[in-house]
Structure formats: structure tokens, C-alpha cells
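User: Modeling request: complex.
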Amino acid sequence: MLSQILREIEQNEGAISLAKLSQKLMIQTSTLEGMLQTLIGMGRIKVDNVESVGACIPGGCASCNSDQQCPLVVHLPKTYSVVKRN
Amino acid sequence: MTGIHSLAYTKRSGFSIDYGREIEEEIVRIQQLIEKKPVIQQKFPSRWLAIKLLEQDEDIHKKLQPLEGGQKILTESQESLAHLKVVFGEDSDTILADRRYGWINGLVREAVKHTRPNQMTISDQIDQIVTNQYIGVPLFLVMMWIVFMFTTEISTPYIDWIEGVISGPITNWLIALLGAFGARGTWGESLLVDGIIAGVGGILSFVPVLFALYLALAVLEDSGYMARGAFVMDNLMHVFGLHGKSFVPLVIGFGCTVPAMYATRTLESRKDRILTGLLVPFMSCGARLPVYVLFASIFFPNNSGTIVFWLYLIGILMAITAGILLRKFVFKGKEPSPFVMELPSYRMPTLKAIWMHTWERTSSFLKKASTAIMVASIIIWLLLSIPVTGSANFAQVSPENSAFGKISEWISPIFNPLGFGEWQMSGALVSGLSGKEVIITTLAQTYGIESNEITENILVDFGKDIGFILKSFIVATGDTIRSLPRIIGINIDAADNQPESTHLMQTIARSFDSSSQGHGQLAAFSFMIFVLLYTPCVVALAAEKQELGSKWMWFTVFGQAGLAWVASLLVFQAGKILGLG
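Assistant: Request completed. Predicted assembly structure:
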């Protein structure tokens, strides 16, 4: 099952939605989420941490002057990428 | 091996998952080794330990190493791992987890009965349309068009209201206060009225525009649509051969270029990071929106929302074109970038959440206006106050004879072929490098000083002023309500659908008409294209230097400026030939 998920993700050129992936593999979305967590634990996929890159340089554009996330950053959905193994 | 094969299924007792013949054989082989070492066998159940070793559990490795016979077991388990890798072509930890999920899945299929099998949720049904590869992108563009129509239509009456309040009662109160302290006619008055009130006040008039945009974005974000927008953007990237994950920094770039530059870190390859970083400035950041709205309201009052939408779209199209060219000639080759996107379910946004998101963003702009933009206003005022030619004293010099006027005049011939060669415009574009909102601040200051004729004695009537503020607010609200149907193209008030022109707007219109020999509309569009494409602000450049290095930062500085100049030239000159504007 897990290898199938990895294969299915890797077959795509770009993004595939979680719902589409669960449809293709005929696995419930909640089960698939658990499997993705297992794959994260195994270091086979990773969560792309978009939120953390929203932190501006101190003083930044003078919008916030803090280490917190920039208020102008649009909240984007969580994405998972396959970790390339050498 | 035959002995182990038969043992593989006899050795299991009680509840245990069947991992398949090859794995079970390796488990038993390691189990047999463990059972020969009493110290280890006493500490760990043999099957559990064998499985953990095949899973390459680091913690178990550490615990086993110092024990007697531990090293031998570890060495033997490495042989098992190598063997399984050859058999399955996959790491054993993945195969073991795979088998466990297979077992769970089989169990669920046998034990769970779905009363409504394979029924799609409402979210999934909507997504069939919204994320469809053919409908998704056009639908996203329609949504964006509605956002810009909403932004311009509901904010325009309030822009006039704030402008009226700042240039009317607030300025009068300040002048009267200065008069009470005997500070009339001093440089202090010039600093406060021509510098801070004109500069910061000029940009504060556009707070309703940003508030409306942030309100629309908050609704889209909280409803779950923005995530779908990002998803279809990703598909669009692939159609044009760009890296899928580039959509993250590019979408963030619509808010601000600075965090968008940092967001390029989400891309693994340096080549992709550089390419995406070079495309980010094409996305119209929030700071450029007030400039677009001001010029669209002056020169295209009936289609301002559509013009703003087109400017955003031109930015995206230019980014795609630049991306294709850079990919083809500079950053050749593209590694596939598969990833999974978790699209949240659609939901009805709550008023509290929408207000919080909108206010968070609007207040960040207000903070910027009271810090960076105020400093920029003071610097521009200072440069406008230093006499370079003529005999006037400090803060009494006419703008064209000031240091700012002379520097701007020296630069302005560059912009003559683009239709906006007046010194006020070239000065505004240069000061706009400190932040694109400063373009408005500068225009308000340079055109404001020219027209300010402060009367000697101002009589303040607070009651009358408060009445004016409240009455004009009610009028603005009424105008906004009447303009709502125009968002979807219905004009119920055809006779009165043009926003009221403020003094600044009239002066800018005259100035563009004169600099372009009567092609004001075309020159204004050329100016907006220049603002869209030219060099990003210095803070964005600093972020680019940090992320991509000096070389690429300078590439952006000169590349974007050159591209903006050529694009504006084409717009103005081709437009004139074609008889547009």
C-alpha cells in the first residue's frame, strides 16, 4: 500500500490532491492521511513548511517588524513531497 | 533455507501479522540468532526485536550494540536487509509498513460495512468543477475579476471621503493649531502640511482599497477556495513547463514580494529557486494596488475594476513568458516535482475570522504608513525644500527649483517616449523604489505643494467640520451601496456612476495629458505597466540578495527596469499608432 502511494505520487508531474489520490487508490481519505503520516515518520515524504517561510527579516518591509509570520502571506494548503533517496 | 521456510509459519504464535514468506523467513532467521543469546532474549521478545531490526529502528540499534552478541545480530540483520532489498527493490521498513497497512485494509474490508458506499462529499463534488483541468483556470480568473471589481467599486467612495477629510478639516485644524502657537509660515508648517499630511494622508486615502481587497481575500481563504486557486495555478505552471511548487512564492507575491522571496526556499533545486525568485516581482504586490486604483479611477472611471484585473493578469502572463524563456535558454532542464496537496473542505467563513484576517492585514499597512512611509514623506519633503536654483529660502522654494525637482527633471527625459516625461512622475517612480506606495505619496506631495495656497487666517468651526465628516461618510456609504450591483455588471445608477474627482486626481489627469500631447489615457496605462514591471522595492531586493545572491539581485534591478521601459514604450507608441487613448 505505502509503495503504491509513493508510486502514484511520483507518477504525477506536479500536484495531486489528497481526495484524488484516495480515489485512485480506493482508500478512505482519513486512512490515507494516516499512511502519509507513517511515510513522514519513515522519512519517505516530508511536509513542505510554507508557513515558516512567511517570517520576515527583522524590520522587514516595516509591516510587522517581528519574527511572526507576515500578515500578507496568503494561507496555502499543506503539501507533501517525496524525499529523494540517494 | 527450506528449514527456515517451514519454521517461518510454525514459529508464529498468538496474534501476529503475516508479512509474507520472504520477510517471515528473515524474521525467523534473526529470531533464531536472538534466541541463542539469553541476555538479549530476556530483555526483548525475539519476534518483536527481529521486526524492529528489519525496520532499522535506530533506538534498538543503540540498545543492542553494547549487549553480549548484539553486534553479531546487527551484522546478520544487515545481511537480511540487503537480501530483502534485492528481492523487493525497496527498503524493508517500507515493505513492513506496507504489509501492515495491507493487513489492516483487508481487515477493514471484511469487518466494516459502508451504508453509503463511495458517496462523494459536497466538497468533492464542487472540486470536480472547481479543480477541473479545463474549467479550473477560467473559473479562477473569473473569481479574481470579481475580487477586483468588488475592491474598486466599494472602496472608491470612501477614498474620496478620506481624501476630503484629510485635505479639509484635518489640514485646517492643524493650520489653526500652528497659528495658535505662532508657527504659521515656518518650515515646521511646511513639514507638517506639505510633507506629512500630503504624503502620509495621500496614501491613507487608499486604506479602503486595501481593506476591500483583504476582505475579499479573507472570504476566499476561509471558504477554502484560495487553496483550489493555488491548485489550479500549479496545473497552469506545468502546462508552461515551470516547476509546480513555484506557485507557492508566486501566490505569496500577490501580498508582498519580501516573504515571497523567502518562500522560494520551499524548492529543493537552486536552479528552480533562482528561476522562481526572478518571476516573483512580476506578481503585483499589495503596495502597487493603490497606484493602479488611483490611475484607473482617474483615466478609466467606468472600468477601473477591469483595468486593475488586467494589470494583475498581465503580470501573470509576463511571469509565464519570462519563465518559459528563462527555462529554455538559462535554466535548462526540469526535474519532476510530484507532491500531494491537502485541500481543506469548503466551509462557511465566520464573520469573526474574516474580520481578524482583514484587520490584521489592514493594520499592518497602517503601521507601515506611520513608519516607513512617513520617513519617506519626510525625506521627499526635505529634498523638495532644499533650493538648488533661484533665490528662495529653505522650505519656500518652488518644487521645480528644489533638489528633488532638479534630480527628477534630470531623469525625466528617459520617460518622454513612454508618455510620462514630467519631472513629478519620474521623481515618483524613483522614490517608489523605497516602496511602491511611495509613488502616491510623492505625487501627492509634488502636486500638492504646487497647488497649496494656504490662506492667512483659517477659522475653525468644529461643529461644522464634524458635521461635514459625518455627512460625507453617509454619502460615501450610500454611493458604495448603490455601486454594489456594478460588481456583477448591473448599472442601476447610470447617470451618476463616475467617482468624484479629487484635486490630486484632476492635477494628475492634466499633467498626463500635457506630457503625452493629449494621449493621457494611453500614457496612464503605459505608466501603470511601468509600475507593474519595474524594479521591486529595496527591501524586496535585499531579500532577493539574501536568497539568490548579488548577481541575480542586479539582474532583477536592471532586467526589470529595462523590461518595464520596453513594455511601456510599446504600449504608448503602438497605442498612438493604432489610435487608442
